[in-house]
What we know:
This protein is α+β, with helices and mostly antiparallel strands. It has helices at about 10-15, 20-25, 40-50, 60-65, 80-90, 100-105, 120-130, and strands at about 1-10, 30-40, 70-75, 115. Strands 2-3-1-4 form a 4-stranded antiparallel beta sheet. The longest helix is centred in the C-terminal third of the chain and has 11 residues, at about 120-130. The structure holds guanosine-5'-diphosphate. Guanosine-5'-diphosphate binds near residues 61 and 91. The site of guanosine-5'-diphosphate has 9 residues, from helix 4.
Amino acid sequence: MQQTLSIIKPDAVKKNVVGKILDRFESNGLRIAATKKIQLSRADAEAFYAVHKERPFFGELVEFMISGPVVVSVLEGENAVAKNRELMGATDPKEAAPGTIRADFAESIDANAVHGSDSLENAAIEIAFFFARREIL
Ligand code: GDP
C-alpha cells in the first residue's frame, strides 16, 4: 500500500472538473485519504517546485500555479505512485495516451490539469508539505 500526492491544478479547477478527476482516481482503485481546496501563495509554489528552479519555465510555472485555487489530495492504494502517473498521462497533453486525465482535461504542457508525485520518496515529502498527519485518514 502506498500514498501519493495529487494536485488538481488551477486550469482544471476553473473548468469545474474536480469531481470528474477525483472520480478517475476512485474508479481505478485509489482511495482519497485526504483532500482540500487551497490557494497557493507565491512562496508556497516556489517552495513546492524548488527542484525546477533552474528550469527556463520556472517563473511561468509559479505564475500558473498561483493563478487560482488548487485541490490537493492524498491518494492511497496499491502502487499508488505509478498508478496515479499512469492515470495522469504524459506531461504534454498532446502526447498523453487517450483516456488519461491530461488527454481529456488539459490544454497545454504548462496548463496540464494535474500534478502527481514521481517517486515514493517525493510523495512523502509532498504529502508532508500540504497535510498534517491527523488530516490523512
Ligand atoms: P510532470 O511530473 O509530468 O508534472 O512534469 P515535470 O516534473 O517535468 O514538470 C513539472 C511541471 O512543469 C509540469 O507538470 C508542467 O506544469 C510544467 N512544465 C513542464 N515543462 C514545461 C514547459 O516546457 N513550459 C512550461 N511553461 N511549463 C512546463
